[in-house]
Amino acid sequence: MLQGLMNLLSLCFKPFGHDGENHETNGILGGGSRGGSREGKDGLFWFRDIGKYGSGDFSMTVVQANQVLEDQSQIESGQFGTFVGIYDGHGGPEAARYVCDHLFKHFRAITAESQGVVTAETIERAFRQTEEGFTALVSELWSTQPNMATVGTCCLVGVIYQQTLFIANLGDSRAVLGKKVGNTGGIAAMQLSTEHNANIEAIRHELKELHPNDPQIVVLKHGVWKVKGIIQVSRSIGDVYMKHERYNKEPINRKFRLPEPMNMPILSANPTIISLTFHPNDSFLIFASDGLWEHLSNEKAVDIVHSHPRAGSAKRLVEAALQEAARKREMRYSDLQKIDKKRCCPRPSSIQSKCTRT
Q1: Over 60: is that where the pLDDT of 245 sits?
Q2: Is 50 exceeded by the pLDDT of residue 144?
Q3: What is the pLDDT of the chain when averaged over all its residues?
Q4: Residue 57 falls within a domain, yes or no?
Q5: If DSSP codes are grouped into helix, strand and coil, which group holds residue 58?
Q6: Which of 34, 133, 170, 172 fits a disulfide with 290 by CB distance 3.0 to 4.6 angstroms?
Q7: pLDDT tens digits, residue range 178-206?
Q8: Contact call for residues 284 and 11 (beta carbons, < 8 A)
Q9: So what's the pLDDT on residue 53?
Q10: Has residue 98 got a pLDDT over 70?
Q11: Is 192:167 a contact under the CB 8 Å cutoff?
């Protein structure tokens, strides 16, 4: 289906090797061109070939296949370092928009409380406050907009603080590091994020251990494993119908209602967080939603970025993924470029690509 081809979001990013000027970048999806960067639209593509931020440069591309864009992303720079967020929404755009509006604000406030020091606990608290805030919003709107309870988003965050990189993830987006191989001129891929998708055996095992008395905690439907037969990801912001029993009832859509009582949350909002110290051979970072990785391996993606100029890195990744997706579906890539968003599949979807250079 077309939505499967078009659900990508990626950012390619390269920090400088020194402390450059700080450039605040709020709402990177909007705004004009900065620092000589080229941005614009090309069919379904929105792109920024290259842009500057506090500690480096970045390239970004979004492909929107339908009228409503469910995904959001941001890059922010300041005394705390650099904050990168990729929010791959599902069920509607509200959760991704809420996270884009609130997660960084919580992170910045918590960091300020600790005199600018960033830790894994800082990021975890920001995630927790964002989840609590969205749940409160669902409660507030329950009588008028009950389907807000069924909206959620994956959430991939990278924070560069001094020489340390933190990666925090909920859901199945992915961060990959491109590392130079000695003096050979080669490049190697290193996956940094842990994904939470029921198609991964380790995630199914985790869910079964957490819910030993529920034989239907993961269900195989049409060749795809889903939590309770409904959703692929096991962690997210939002999706409160799978976390709080009081929201898993009428008037939400019947397809989201569980037949048995919910004794404990089924989905989690606890991110997996890792940290590492940058090495001189670390070359660039790729942040992308699951759609990109369905069609490009980690190795193929880093090779594309490494083998071409910085400008346009993200757009090249998206084009390569779409070409591969079209090949698998026996479509022509040129046909994808002619798609009318108003005539696409009913569920809105997008491709965003961001590449950051280290």
Answers
A1: yes
A2: yes
A3: 85
A4: yes
A5: strand
A6: 172
A7: 999 988 889 999 999 999 999 999 999 99
A8: no
A9: 75
A10: yes
A11: yes
**pTM score, two decimals?**
0.87
The pLDDT of residue 13 is 62
Residue whose tokens read 């696409």: 344
Report the candidate in 48, 20, 44 with the shortest Cα–Cα distance to residue 32.
Answer: 48
pLDDT band at 30 (very low <50, low <70, confident <90, very high): very low
Structure tokens at 228: 């309770």
DSSP SS3 for 324: helix
How far, in Å, CA of 27 to CA of 22, rounded?
16
* Residue 353 · residue 61 · CB < 8 Å: yes
Average pLDDT over residues 18-30: 30
In which domain, by residue range, is 345 found? Answer: 2-195+271-357
Q: For residue 352, is pLDDT > 80?
A: no
What radius of gyration do the chain's Cα atoms show? 20
Separation of alpha carbons 337 and 341, rounded Å: 11
Q: Flag whether pLDDT at 275 surpasses 60.
A: yes
| Distance of alpha carbon 206 from alpha carbon 234, whole angstroms | 10
CATH code of the domain in which 102 resides? 3.60.40.10
Do 96 and 116 meet the contact criterion of CB atoms below 8 Å apart? Answer: no
Q: Name the DSSP class of 204.
A: H
- Render 328-342 in DSSP notation, one character per residue: HTT--HHHHHT--GG
Would residue 216 count as lying in a domain? no
Nearest partner of 160 among 244, 256, 77, 267, judged by Cα: 77
Q: Could you tell me if residue 209 is inside a domain?
A: no
**Total domains present in the chain:** 1
- CA pair distance 112, 121, nearest whole angstrom: 13
**And the tokens for 168?**
């925090």
For the residues 232-238, what does the mean pLDDT come to?
A: 99
Q: Which helix (H) or strand (E) holds 293?
A: helix 290-295
Question: Measured between alpha carbons, how far is 339 from 66 in angstroms, rounded to an integer?
Answer: 9
Residue 19: predicted pLDDT? 34
Residue 286: name the closest of 55, 6, 9 by CA. Answer: 9
Residue 242 within any structural domain of the chain: no
